[in-house]
């Protein structure tokens, strides 16, 4: 006997509900959870069953069933939060929407760059604790920001394909080295001795320190085995970079081509460097796009050095700083760790494309 399955809750929308749901689903900066729920209910209102709605919106059937039932039970209020036992809610759906929209699409009148709980509470007439609950529910964090910088390099796509091609499909019998300088590494000595870590208490350090000079680290990270060729210099001019290239030439096997992944720093492109490269034809330089240091694997290695040595180091002279760096690099090379690159050029470009769409408010 054919079974029809569990009957679906009847869902019919009024014109006012359609208008409100449409506004929620289309607002460029609206909270995405509420926008998704609105699209689910609009599709249900077209008479589609849960399976068809799930396929259309791109969610699971249980998700559709959940929000269909919530809407039937509480209409628009059912899309905002689970009904809770106890006294009725003291704030309305319109007030919640106003807080979310103002947080996303406006700034305080006093010229501040972002909202605080107190400033939003003053504007909305709600309490600071209520503002905090709304922000937590919609995962809004006005006090936080992430940094980014999009490359304006006209050869961005070509350079991405070039560098990623070296990572994922390096030339046979060639050596691929990611090269860069970590310049102006400071020898810092804390003003007072640190309190050592104890059970239940982390190590404590003073926030102030005394500077004792700087050094610059030149590094070439071998993507195949994770080993590093390094040099320390007090300056980082083309002269020092040329000396480092000579060291790479001496410390790599004779014969194989050497492919260097470098950024666009001026010392990498001077006439003296071009002349040196012309005299050493086995060396090939591949430049990363401008403002794209993330694509150079040696930057990941520099992050390891910073985290393990420099961030909490104590050095009363440049000499002691350089000695500790050499010791750390030697220990790294005794047990090197290559980084596994998995992203293809196409995946990187697609990800950046999505970021640009979000910045421009497209695709909503």
Question: What would you say about this model in short?
Answer:
The chain is α/β, with parallel strands linked by helices. It has helices at 15-26, 32-45, 50-57, 61-74, 93-105, 117-124, 128-137, 156-168, 238-251, 271-279, 297-310, 318-334, 345-360, and strands at 175-190, 209-222, 228-233, 258-262, 283-287. Helix 1 (15-26) packs antiparallel against helix 2 and helix 8 (156-168) packs antiparallel against helix 13.
Which terms summarize this structure?
five-stranded mixed β-sheet, 2 domains, 364 residues, Nucleotidyltransferase, domain 5, 13% strand, elongated, alpha/beta
What does this molecule look like?
About 45% of the residues lie in helices and about 15% in strands. By secondary structure, it is an alpha/beta fold. It folds into two domains: about 15-135, no CATH class; about 155-190 and about 205-345, Ribonuclease H-like superfamily/Ribonuclease H (Nucleotidyltransferase, domain 5, 2-Layer Sandwich). A five-stranded mixed β-sheet has the order 3-2-1-4-5. Strand 2 (about 210-220) and strand 3 (about 230-235) form a beta hairpin. Helix 1 (about 15-25) runs antiparallel to helix 2 (about 30-45), helix 2 crosses helix 4 and helix 3 (about 50-55) packs across helix 4.
């Amino acid at each position: 006997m054919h079974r029809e399955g569990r009957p679906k809750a009847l869902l019919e929308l009024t014109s006012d509900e359609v208008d409100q749901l449409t506004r929620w689903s289309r607002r460029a900066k609206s909270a995405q959870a509420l926008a998704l729920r609105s699209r689910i209910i609009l599709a249900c209102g077209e008479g589609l069953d849960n399976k068809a709605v799930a396929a259309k919106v791109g969610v699971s059937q249980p998700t559709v069933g959940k929000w269909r039932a919530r809407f039937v039970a509480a209409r628009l209020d059912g899309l905002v939060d689970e009904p809770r036992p106890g006294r009725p809610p003291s704030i309305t759906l319109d007030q919640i929407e106003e807080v979310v929209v103002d947080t996303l699409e406006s700034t305080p009148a006093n010229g501040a760059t972002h909202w605080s709980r107190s400033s939003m509470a003053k504007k909305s007439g709600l309490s600071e604790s209520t503002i905090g609950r709304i922000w937590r529910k919609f995962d809004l964090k006005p006090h936080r920001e992430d940094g980014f910088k999009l490359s304006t390099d006209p050869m961005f796509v070509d350079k991405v394909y070039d560098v990623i091609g070296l990572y994922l499909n390096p030339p046979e019998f060639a050596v691929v080295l990611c090269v860069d300088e970590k310049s102006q590494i400071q020898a810092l000595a804390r003003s007072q001795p640190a309190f050592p870590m104890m059970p239940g208490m982390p190590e404590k350090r003073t926030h102030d320190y005394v500077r004792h000079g700087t050094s610059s680290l030149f590094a070439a990270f071998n993507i195949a085995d994770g080993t590093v060729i390094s040099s320390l210099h007090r300056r980082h001019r083309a002269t020092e970079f040329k000396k480092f290239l000579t060291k790479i030439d001496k410390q790599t096997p004779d014969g194989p081509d050497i492919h260097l992944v470098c950024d666009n720093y001026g010392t990498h492109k001077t006439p003296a460097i071009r002349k040196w490269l012309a005299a050493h034809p086995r060396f090939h330089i591949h430049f990363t796009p401008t403002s794209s240091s993330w694509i150079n694997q040696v930057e990941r290695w520099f992050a390891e050095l910073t985290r393990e040595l420099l961030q909490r180091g104590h050095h009363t002279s440049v000499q002691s700083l350089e000695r500790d760096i050499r010791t750390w690099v030697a220990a790294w090379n005794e047990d090197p760790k290559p980084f596994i690159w998995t992203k293809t050029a196409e995946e990187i470009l697609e990800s950046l494309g999505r970021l640009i769409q979000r910045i421009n408010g497209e695709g909503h």
